[in-house]
Amino acid sequence: MTATRPDPAGESFADLLGGRRAAIDATLGPLAFGVAFVAGGESIEWGVGAAVAVTALIGVWRVLRGDKLRAVLVGLLGVVVAALIALHTNRPEDFFFIRIATNAASALAWAVSIVLRWPLLGVVVGTVLGQRGSWRRDPALLRAYSRASWIWVLQYVLRLAVWLPLYWMGQAKALAFSTVALTWPVVAACLAVSWYVMRRSLPDGHPGLRHPQLDGTRVKV
Questions:
Q1: Could you tell me the keywords of this UniProt record (predicted)?
Q2: How far is CA 141 from the centre of its chain?
Q3: CB-hemisphere CA count at 13 Å for 47?
Q4: What is the pLDDT of residue 54?
């Protein structure tokens, strides 16, 4: 059994969620910050200016390709707020404060969702598939989503383990370039590993995540 095409429909979490593309986009702003920060003689203004400009250009390109304007604006707003925080405190590492905070909040939210038996991976995928809450009525799917969701918790914890010490030491350059290393490659690995865990957790003969079952009977969705 492989992690890339284990579903009867030939799909994966990467196919359903499109996480790799979004993660790649999310690295370009911090990368631009790091490059401009170094090239400008460790100038915060150069760094944040480059990050906002690159993110805005990506946003325009995404909108022209048909992406939703709201999602693009949310991404741009996050970079603008991060830039304003860094400019206000005059601490370049504060450009990454929001990113660190959101990863901490995400780790907590995903862990709590598993404990409450509403694993967020199931919520997200179920919403994409239009299943509402029917997947929760399938014990096998619920258990599989819970196990796979721990992989997502681990990705956030991994980033925090690297970023928090760098933030406390004021290592803005290291934060910028570690963001590239710990965003899209980690997201790609998380999608593949969680998909593998998901499929390995389902019993033999289960029709897959598109077909929740209740007491051995397929639930119509």
A1: Membrane, Transmembrane, Transmembrane helix
A2: 22
A3: 29
A4: 92
Q: Can you give the three-state secondary structure of 118-174, one letter per residue?
A: CCHHHHHHHHHCCCCCHHHHCHHHHHHHHHHHHHHHHHHHHHHHHHHHHHHCCCHHH
pLDDT at 6: 43
Q: 168: which residues sit within 8 A by CB, 6+ positions away?
A: none
> 81-102: per-residue pLDDT in tens?
999 999 999 999 999 999 999 9
Q: Is there a contact between 175 and 166 (Cβ–Cβ < 8 Å)?
A: yes
Name residues of the chain where pLDDT drops below 70: 1-11, 14-16, 18-23, 215-221
pLDDT digits (tens, 9 = 90+) for 109-143: 999 999 999 999 999 998 888 888 889 999 999 99
Is the pTM value of this prediction over 0.85? no
Q: Is 41 exposed, middle or buried (0-12, 13-18, 19+ CB in 10 A)?
A: exposed
Q: What is the DSSP string of the chain?
A: --SSS-STTS--HHHHH-HHHHHHHHHHHHHHHHHHHHHTTS-HHHHHHHHHHHHHHHHHHHHHTT--HHHHHHHHHHHHHHHHHHHHHT-GGGGGHHHHHHHHHHHHHHHHHHHTT--HHHHHHHHHTT-TTGGGG-HHHHHHHHHHHHHHHHHHHHHHHHHHHHHHTT-HHHHHHHHHHHSHHHHHHHHHHHHHHHHHHSPTT---TTS-EETTEEPP-
